[in-house]
Specification:
It is built from 13 helices and no strands. The chain is mainly α and about 200 residues long. It has two domains: about 45 residues, Homeodomain-like (Arc Repressor Mutant, subunit A, Orthogonal Bundle); about 140 residues, Tetracycline Repressor, domain 2, CATH 1.10.357.10. Helix 1 packs across helix 2 and helix 5 packs across helix 12. The longest helix has 26 residues.
């Protein structure tokens, strides 16, 4: 199957799964949306689960591309990390399949694909890891920092923001005013009092 037809099928799958969810989306609906026969879908994938995971992966690539534009445009480390988190939360809130991957719905949808889902979740952290590497390169962060671990913690901040936004009637307004700078500032400076203040208090 040529790449253009495969891409057309994936675009249709993203639209259908985003609009209807996994259970309500049929292969027939994806085929109709793509303007191909049902058999053509099965030339591209072996099952609805595989089609769903490929649609999620396509959305993850688009999600990462939006974040890469932030990473390449900002030099100052604190601003870069804060802007990247805001961009990723906004992008995830616009992409239901990425949102589902962030908040655990994807694994609940296709539990037999635990390894594939874990790989996609790891992929979601690529931009965070790149931004942290850059911040470490400027001397802002410790040399011995476990970048993957810290990226996971920052991603947990994103997940928390997405979950909070889900429950708000004013989610759009909150999304427009999202600001992670205080979180990142606290994160970078740490929670300890400066040593001079600790000594003065003793």
């Amino acid at each position: 199957m040529d790449d253009a037809k495969r891409e057309c099928i994936l675009v249709a799958a993203v639209k259908a799964f985003s609009r209807l969810g996994f259970r309500k989306t049929s292969i027939d609906e994806v085929a109709q949306e793509a303007g191909v026969g049902k058999g053509t879908i099965y030339l591209a994938v072996s099952s609805k689960d595989e089609l769903f995971l490929q649609a999620v992966e396509r959305e993850v690539r688009a999600f990462l591309a939006a974040g890469r534009r932030v990473v390449s445009a900002t030099d100052e480390a604190l601003e870069l990390l804060a802007t990247l988190l805001v961009t990723e939360v906004r992008e995830a809130s616009r992409r239901p399949l990425v949102h589902g991957l962030f908040v655990g719905q994807t694994l609940a949808t296709v539990p037999r694909a635990e390894r594939a889902v874990a790989d996609l979740q790891n992929k979601l952290r690529e931009n965070l890891a790149a931004a942290l590497e850059g911040a470490r390169g400027t001397g802002l962060l410790r040399e011995d920092l476990d970048i993957r671990h810290v990226a996971r913690i920052l991603q947990d901040l994103e997940v928390a923001a997405l979950v909070r936004l889900e429950r708000r009637h004013d989610a759009e307004a909150r999304l427009a005013n999202l600001d992670f700078r205080p979180d990142i500032d606290t994160f970078i400076r740490g929670l300890r009092r400066p040593l001079a203040l600790v000594r003065a208090a003793s």
